[in-house]
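Milestone M4 deliverable, item 7.
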Amino acid sequence: MRLVVVGNGVAGMKVAEDVRKYDSSAQIILFDEERYGYYSRVWLPALVSGAKTPESIIMRDADWYKARSIDFRPGTRVTRIDPKGRRVTAEPGGTLDYDKLCIATGASCNLPPFKNAGITGVFTLRTIDDAISFKEYIKGKKRAVCIGGGLLGLEAARNVKKAGLDTTVVEVFPRLLPRQLCSTSAGMLTEQVHGLGIGTVLGATVEEILGTDHVTGVKLAGNRILDADVVLVSAGIKPRTDLAVEAGLKVNKAVVVDEFMQTSDENIFAAGDVVEFGGKGWGIIPAALEQAAVAAKRIAGEPCEPYTPTVPSNKLRIMDFDVMSAGSAILDDADQNCRVFISKDEMRGVFKKFVVRDGKLVGSILLQAKNDEGFVSRNINKEVPEEEIKKRVDTQG
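Output delivered:
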């Protein structure tokens, strides 16, 4: 069998790795537009401040692939997929036949249609080269506006601040981390952000990037103007579906797959940020890993349980602040069928929230409560005695 994998993000790397485990004789070709090897995008903001180097975040280099007999082709872009002929066209490299194909092209940064968004000094952060370009540009600059108060936006802002720029975060929602936190926990995080010398403007709509030859500021609705020498936009992602669309595969907002990560073509699979399952996309690393594991088993002909939707969960350190958000009902306080358990210690910055429905722990938010993170990970969407939850609410830290 010849397997071609298009894309070397977490999903593509995992598919290639797992298929090799199951099939020692398969020919595996892995195409990567970038030239570095596999790295985790969560470390990109650290490149901006110099806390990390490009070399230090690479987790799978050329030698790693060679040791597993994976034909790794960095700096090579697949430009066309021909499902009928079962071949791909790549630059450089020409055409290559396949028996099975996995599309793992991931996503690109979403750049909202701000007026003047194409001006010099407006950046997104999705690749190592993006980070290198941004780091070079901000030398000698004084003021930065980071548009987007989500996970990547806050980490980016923290590292821009570390790089020595006056930094302000602009978020269209009335709170930071709007997809992960409730208003109370977001308020506590905002205080932490302010304590680091980073400004926030919440509930604000960006209308225009100001400047003629380069960025000079950001205009918000209501004619408020923020001075800026550089703008970093972290406004979500867009699945990279161009190859799939041109190949005639079924695509809605992303590439449509079934419970075994198979597309509308029986020989083509997909995994990661580029896919849509059950009308939904995830855009998180755990989902990419779980989808890739299913795709790899199916491709290799191994017994395989169908993919079940990944439970959203984020456990990370935001601006030196431990944050965990898990489940799909973390904001569901008003649901009559939910019981919500909360404890808060503003002096210590500790916040705990557990949401229970029908005896099951369906959501949780934790700030500075690492001792409870394992409990949530083990029990999300499982039945948990309320006494156990009450005990954790009453225990600080």
